[in-house]
Amino acid sequence: MADQSVIIVGGGIIGACCAYYLRRRGWEVTVVERDRLGAACSHGNCGLISPSHALPLAIPGVVAKTLPMMFKGDAPLRVAPRFDPGLWSWLMRFALRCKEAPMLESAAARHALLQSSVALYRDMLADESIDCEWEDRGAYFIYQTDSGMDGYAKSDQWLQQFGLGAERITGEELEAREPALKPGTTAGAWYYRMDAHIRPDKLMRQLRSVLERMGVVIVEGTSITGFARGRNQAAALQTSAGDMQADEYVLATGAWTPKLNEWIGSKVPIQPGKGYSITYPRPTRCPSTPLAFMDQKVIVTPFQSGYRLGSTMEFAGYDASINRTRLEALKRGASLYLHEPYCEPEEEQWYGWRPMTYDGKPVIDRSPAMQNVRVAAGHNMLGLSMGSATGKLIDEMLSGETPHIDLKPFRIGRF
Questions:
Q1: pTM of the full predicted structure?
Q2: What is the distance between the alpha carbons of residues 270 and 268, in angstroms, rounded to a whole number?
Q3: Which end of the chain lies in a sparser environment, N or C, as judged by fewer CB atoms within 10 Å?
Q4: Closest residue by Cα to residue 168 from 136, 138, 142
Q5: CATH number at residue 330
Q6: Residues of the domain holding 111
Q7: How far, in Å, CA of 287 to CA of 291, rounded?
Q8: pLDDT per residue as tens digits for the range 320-365
């Protein structure tokens, strides 16, 4: 693809992976980022590579379970009370998806992306000698009560259809495997052996070095203001630093994608789902495996070089403040189970906006308005897990190859 150029808008894991695969193909690649490469959700997430997460959030029964607590300040899933017709439309469509058939349709599409990404990541890390603290230790989904364990059994049965069944273990077995847990605090766990974890900020730093070594141009601190258009094409990307021209354009803009809907030519229904994390040094009694405390929706990730508490979901629009009630909920949730739930000093308090679609699937498609603009956004809570496969798909689309995954489930016209 010599002499062919592409501008990628967005410097998170999706944009970085698009840049990686396109540059390997021979494209001239520029990444334009409004902040710093890897500064948003790709920086402070829990670092899970989760092929087990094939099921979307919209599963049967989830609305009845979450609705009573949805407006509480410290609820795992919170909606900030406000007038927001777009959010209420999104929530209504989400509720309509909470049936087995649409759930399984989304799960099949997510499963394909997740499986591909794991394999592609392994190749990328080996080819580029990237050390991002990858560990194949699986993950424990932990419940406090037998009823919680039993209630999750149906989800595991659905996952078994995709070859993703878990090992069910008792509380006693879990405590023997993870001495960092307090005795008697859990009824047991579902163990997903296929999951892995990394340190995401370290991945992004090293991936940046790889991209720069390959000749990718990274333009930071630059926001886009629109497109100059000619016929049904983008003639130039208009930015705060002036117009930038390329043959093709990719919008890997995550939760900000709805701000671009006028240019895209479609109302992409992404809501910013705000997640939080706190990063610490590793405690003395540190878990060896990521732990997901399902009743509190708190995730504990033990990195080789640190330790992170994270998760929760807050629909508060593009509110850029840190809600300390949410941070305290993370610490409180971990304290129920762990001898040393965290240790001082706090190295970082963080939030990021996850790009949530109501059907749980991303958009990987051509813009209806401009034939040389692609959209790669809406990866929900799985941008890290799906990043490499998405980058490969964008490369295949632009390079005229048959995509290695069926793109029909990710089409923009489904909304």
A1: 0.96
A2: 6
A3: C
A4: 142
A5: 3.50.50.60
A6: 5-414
A7: 8
A8: 898 899 999 999 999 999 999 999 999 999 999 999 999 999 999 9
